[in-house]
Amino acid sequence: MKFKTLLFLSPFFFAIALPLFLGCNRVAPLVPPPPAPQVVWANGNVGNWFSSSLAVTTYGGCSVAYAVTAVSDPISGDNSALNLTTASTCGLFFFSATAPVNPSLYYPGHLQFDILLGQPGSNLSTFNIQYNYSIGNYAEYDFPPSLINSLSATSFTHISIPFTSFTIGNGYAQTTVDTPLYVLWTASISGTSITIDNVQWTYN
Q: N or C terminus: fewer CB in 10 A for the chain?
């Protein structure tokens, strides 16, 4: 009798168990991979900005001379970097693109680069990083004195700045950007030098 009852109820139990079984084996939905880093500069070569070509620009009283220099960056493994020198007490340069884009996909992430100073960090009064749109919208991060003083004149230091730290200006969430890296510094002496390498916008 019990066997007949179980046999009678078996389709019912099977109908309940089948969705549970299928649910456990359901394929997870496809998640798109994170975007690849936007490489602005690496190993002696200018990168691009979402397939748009980049150009190095400098002007004004803080104009710098720039050149590829043979130097070992053990952080990235590169053997060439970008050396910036100025005869004055300030330096200004930036990478500008031929076309602006919306880089919002990267805002959970970081702006990263390696830096080597040509003088002690204590000689730099300010060090400022921005990204912006040439008509005036910008996001800015000022290095605190403690970070400036931690930069080395003998070895590269890796810098990784969360985009959410770019709080000066119009704020970090710029939806139109054609200048992915803008650097301005002031110093207590003239003739300062800065070398940078492996400049990237990264998703994480």
A: N
* Whole-number pLDDT of residue 14: 43
Q: What are the CA-CA distances from residue 66 to residues 4, 48, 60, 139, 204 (Å)?
A: 90, 18, 15, 24, 29
How far is the CA of 40 from the CAs of 18, 24, 95, 123, 148, in angstroms? 53, 45, 8, 27, 22
Burial code of 173-194, b = ≥16 C-beta within 10 A, e = fewer? ebeebbbbbbbbbbbeeeebbb
Decide which of 13 and 196 is more confident: 196
Contact call for residues 97 and 178 (beta carbons, < 8 A): yes
Name, in order, each residue with C-beta under 8 angstroms of 14's C-beta and a sequence gap of 6 or more. none
Cα dist from 84 to 60, 67, 89, 180, whole Å: 15, 7, 13, 17
Tokens linked to 198? 């492996």
Number of H helices, E strands in the chain: 2, 14
121-180 pLDDT tens trace: 999 999 999 999 988 899 999 999 999 999 999 999 999 999 999 999 999 999 999 999
- Residues 87 and 191: their CA atoms lie apart, in Å, by 4
Q: Count other C-beta atoms under 10 Å from residue 35's C-beta.
A: 14
Among residues 182, 179, 180, the alpha carbon closest in space to that of 202 is found at 180
Dihedral sign for Cα 180, 198, 201, 117, please.
negative
